[in-house]
Amino acid sequence: MCYSFSTLDWKVIDHLSKKDSFFVAGRGFGGLAIAYFLKKKHPSKKVYLFDPHPLGHSASAAASGLLEPIGGRLAVRSPLASEGLMLSKYLLDKVSHFLGKKVYLEGGVVHAPIDQSQESIFKKKAEDYPDWFSWTKDKELLVREGVNVFSKTYLEGLFSLVKSMGVEFYQTSVPIDPEIKMIFLCVGASIQEMLPDAFRLTRGQAMRVKKLETTFSLPKVCRGYVALDLDPSIYHLGSTYERTNLHLPPDKTMAVKELKERNRDIYPEIDEVEVVEMRSGVRVFCKDEKRLPRILQIAPNQVALAGFGSKGLLYHALFAKKIVDDYST
Q1: For the chain, what is the largest distance between any 2 Cα atoms, rounded to a whole number of angstroms?
Q2: What is the pTM of this model?
Q3: Which letter does DSSP use for residue 132 in this model?
Q4: Are 58 and 67 in contact (CB under 8 A)?
Q5: Quick one: which of 258, 254, 252 has its CA closest to 276?
Q6: CATH code assigned to 10-108+145-327
Q7: Mind listing the pLDDT tens digit for each residue in 104-121?
């Protein structure tokens, strides 16, 4: 489900002040982080948050929960990885303190090589960068800085935190009005309505399953991934990368079949798992080669943040703070 610009309820928002206020569209990780940093920077100003859909409709709620500074077959360190990790951990800790419970698990993320070539690459990484990686006795790469975020709990907690700071939420589309001081758009796949040529979309589906005999103390990545849940009896298995038929409802039967094949190497009894829930979301990737989200000014009082791809947890806080620093006065 995408953010909608066509469900504006003027009766709800007609009383809002405009000239010295900030309006934020979207309450995924990015939109909530923008609201947080706006209120932190401007505690005396009004910050309004808009989204016509229930909390959890976005790709953020379907996120794997794997926060790590690398990507790809070669385990290449992502651009601005250290800065992204630092600010993401900052927000994770703020939410954990607010809720009175940790919304993430530290200890690293394990990467199991898919073949001999990748095993050699991983082993060399551990030798060359011992501060970042370890080579385990099981011949797997441990990404030391990796974190398993309990995405749904974090998303709900971040929303509650910004409301406690004074951010006002309205379950309607954001009004587009030249009198508004600044409108921050972080609307996921709906960005294509405004910038159809700047981004490409993929749908990801993941499944929550009941734990069986195989247990994991840390999340593990191979062709797919197994991530841990706040509920110790549940694992998250992902993910699909669907590039076609995105206008159609998710094909859950196809996704379950694909996810079982992707995770067979690391979850031996995959065919026996009980699927508790399927989750899906649409990732937004920038078409350029920089592998970073983009901040785009749409109009004099409208600025958008988009293109997190599969790295929303790594970059949401960093780029939210940047857009707030650059576009709020």
Answers
A1: 63
A2: 0.94
A3: T
A4: no
A5: 252
A6: 3.50.50.60
A7: 999 999 999 999 999 999
**pLDDT tens sequence across 67-80:** 999 999 999 999 99
The Cβ of residue 197 has, within 10 Å, a number of other Cβ atoms equal to 7
* Token pair listed for 105: 């698990």
Q: What is the distance, to the nearest Å, from the Cα of residue 218 to the centroid of all Cα atoms in its chain?
A: 19
Say what angle helices 312-327 and 29-41 make with each other, to 10 degrees: 40
SS3 assignment, position 50 = strand
Q: Which residues contact 136 (CB under 8 A, 6 or more apart)?
A: 110, 142
Reference 24, options 329, 324, 231, 326; nearest CA is 324
User: How far apart (Å, rounded) are the C-alpha atoms in residues 242 and 147?
Assistant: 25
DSSP 209-252: EE--S---SS-EESSSEEEE-SSTTEEEEE---B-S-TTSPP-H
Q: Assess contact for 22 and 184: CB atoms under 8 A.
A: yes
Cα separation, 329 vs 320, whole angstroms: 15
Give the integer Cα–Cα distance in Å for 150 and 273. 21
Q: Where are the domains of the chain?
A: 10-108+145-327, 109-144
- Per-residue DSSP letter, 270: G
Helix (H/G/I), strand (E/B), else coil: 327: helix
Q: How many CB atoms lie within 10 A of CB 245?
A: 10
Residue 14 CA to chain centroid, in angstroms? Answer: 32
Q: Which amino acid is at 75?
A: A
Angle, to 10 degrees, between the axis of helix 151-164 and the axis of helix 81-99? 70
Of 212, 190, 215, the residue nearest 201 (C-alpha)? 190
Choice among 54-68, 94-108, 180-194, 229-243 with the minimum mean pLDDT: 54-68
Angle at 178 between CA 318 and CA 14, to 5 degrees: 95
d(CA 162, CA 145): 27
Helices (H), the chain: 10-13, 29-41, 81-99, 116-128, 151-164, 252-262, 312-327
Both tokens of 242, joined, read 């669907």
